[in-house]
């Protein structure tokens, strides 16, 4: 009799639970499929739509080489993007159809391939605030606006890469309006850098890459050769002096200015 009453109470409580806490399904959630060369490691994790939701991969951390995002037909946000973190908590970059990013959408365009294959994935994050890295339209911002006009939550993303070795690592610095520095502990050799700045400082904020000896790296984009690099809604800067190097520090400073022609 006591057991029956307990089970009845438990069932009533479960039925009364808010809808937001119900387990998501493939129809109303976001299915994140991690793909490996080994069939036994392939896994699917379903996260909730409309909120920031986080989860470790179902079953195993990998290693994986691709990720596919599928937004369910009943989900409200078809454009939601998801991010994967490695075991160090660093976003994992991936490519799809020429797009390089650290947040991934469905778009009915197939899987994203990791820049560095055989990645261990510690956490999956789906967040309505995640945005596509590439600008959708040419920048029209007022370049005289002070950096403080940006939201405090805005960040500067710096992507160091080497297409020859399919290596890419993304770093984040706060857009604080003052000089910010970040130590790079990686010993990978890089050949390119791309800056993703908040819209209010997209054309004005510049960053510098220092090698392990503390010397500034010179890079080129189009006809521009410089030791400080802006976003400007354009592609990556290619290293020229040296053409390939390890990186010791990233510095972003509102005081940096474009080199004179």
**Tally of extended strands?**
19
Percentage beta strand = 25-35%
* Sheet having the most strands: 6 strands, antiparallel
Rounded to an integer in angstroms, the radius of gyration calculated over CA atoms is 22 Å
Ends: how far apart?
88 Å
**Helical element count?**
1
Q: Mean pLDDT, rounded to whole units? A: 81
Which series of helices and strands comes N to C?
HEEEEEEEEEEEEEEEEEEE
Helix content: under 10%
Low-confidence stretches: 5-20, 135-153
Signal peptide: 1-16
Keywords: Signal
Folded structure, characterized:
- The chain has 261 residues and is mainly beta.
- The protein folds into 2 domains: 28-127, no CATH class; 147-253, no CATH class.
- It is built from 1 helix and 19 strands.
- It has one helix at residues 2-16, and strands at residues 30-35, 43-47, 53-55, 66-71, 81-85, 94-96, 99-101, 112-114, 123-127, 155-162, 167-174, 180-183, 192-196, 206-210, 218-221, 224-226, 229-230, 237-241, 249-253.
- The strands form 4 sheets. It has a 6-stranded antiparallel beta sheet with strand order 2-1-4-8-6-7, with no helix packed on it. Strands 11-10-13-18-15-16 form a 6-stranded antiparallel beta sheet, with no helix packed on it.
- The longest helix has 15 residues, at 2-16.
- The chain is globular, with a radius of gyration of 22 Å.
- Residues 5-20 and 135-153 have low confidence and may be disordered.
